[in-house]
Amino acid sequence: MPKLTKRFVENLPIKATNYFAWDDEVRGFGVRIMPSGVRTYQVQYLKGGRTRRAAIGRHGVLTAEQARAKAKDLLGKVAMGGNPVEEISIHRRASTVGALCDRFLEVHVLERCKPSTAAEYKRGLNIFIKPALGAFKVVDVKRKDIAAIHHKMKETPYQANRVLGVLSKMFNLAEVWGLRPDGSNPCRHVPKYRELKREAFLSQSELQRLGATLAACELDGSESPYIVAAFRLLILTGCRLGEIQTLKWEYLTAKRMELPDTKTGARRIPLPKAARDVLAALPRVVGNPYVVCGAVEGRHITDLQHPWRRVRERAGLPHTRIHDLRHTYASNAVSSGMPIQMVGKLLGHTQIQTTMRYAHLADDPVLKAAEENASSLQSALGIGSQPVNYLRVVP
């Protein structure tokens, strides 16, 4: 066969079956002529005792010279010990990000995550990740692709960072499952947006207003005793919303709540007398194992957000969240002089860094102690208590 050129390829006759015409200049480079008239450039070589062949591109889309250059590149890789046709085949069969999302959800999220976390992961996968990357091959996703998704969500930085976290975990598992090379997570070095942590808590006067409002709701029946008890227990125990919402009578002992499964695993939570008094006043419903009964027979309450909005409006606390009651518990403990480590144990934190957000509140008892100590030493030193005028000019 002569050298493949545009004219030569276009003049090749159409036959009833496929056939190949091979280039005399580059061994292994040829063109395949289909009965339909479609002409496709091919590369072919022997590797491991087997003939390997792959299409390079259609004639008309590629010129003969472009196809020859690509064939030379692939055959050069073969000469260096590579197997580019096999690599192309593997890539075509490679998993897509959409399939990875499904596997991640089924194998990891649904088996290892709490239902609320699983629901949030599923939402992120379906709304943000699959539409943007679902058709990509897992091996083809680059850092710039991840950065583009993250940047697109810049107006919602908290959500953007959560999605970045899901992507990072998913691509770590892609490495474990052999879908990407080790150490190739494309989420690495994509900076998160700054998050301003909201550590709101109630002052003593606000806490008193809330207490009075809960008492009024209980008295006039505007809220059920279970709703009122739930908010009181959140304040008195520092528990997470879900821990009180799904609390069962069987989890209660004389002085503790023995929770078998929480965000951080099984927890033993102290039950102070004030909380025990709230529980003692709460009527049990026959056939319902839950402390905070819901409208559905035998089930716990599923919505405390709407009742909370009513309560906080009535108390004049329109911007207070339910989670702020947990912050109030923690801030009160730290401000009273309780060690940070102890507060962390009460809150069920697994890392001290999580509790350290309240560390600045420990300054109040320290300042008070310093003031009291200095006052006791003042008389011994014979120092007067008159205020000093720092603006006085000494002649």
UniProtKB/TrEMBL annotation:
Signal peptide span: none
Source organism superkingdom: Bacteria
Domain Core-binding (CB) stretches: 95-175
The Tyr recombinase domain, residue ranges: 197-372
Single Gene Ontology BP annotation: DNA recombination
Transmembrane region(s): none
UniProt keyword Methyltransferase present: no
Cited InterPro entries: CB (IPR044068), DNA_brk_join_enz (IPR011010), Integrase-like_cat_sf (IPR013762), Integrase_catalytic (IPR002104), Integrase_DNA-bd_sf (IPR038488), Integrase_DNA_bind_dom (IPR025166), Integrase_recombinase_N (IPR010998), Integrase_SAM-like_N (IPR004107)
Record keyword Electron transport present: no
UniProt cross-references to CDD domains, sorted A to Z: INT_Rci_Hp1_C
Keywords: DNA integration, DNA recombination, DNA-binding
Gene Ontology MF terms in the entry: DNA binding
Pfam families reported in the protein's UniProt record: Arm-DNA-bind_3, Phage_int_SAM_3, Phage_integrase
Entry's family note: Belongs to the 'phage' integrase family.
Protein's recorded name: DNA integration/recombination/inversion protein
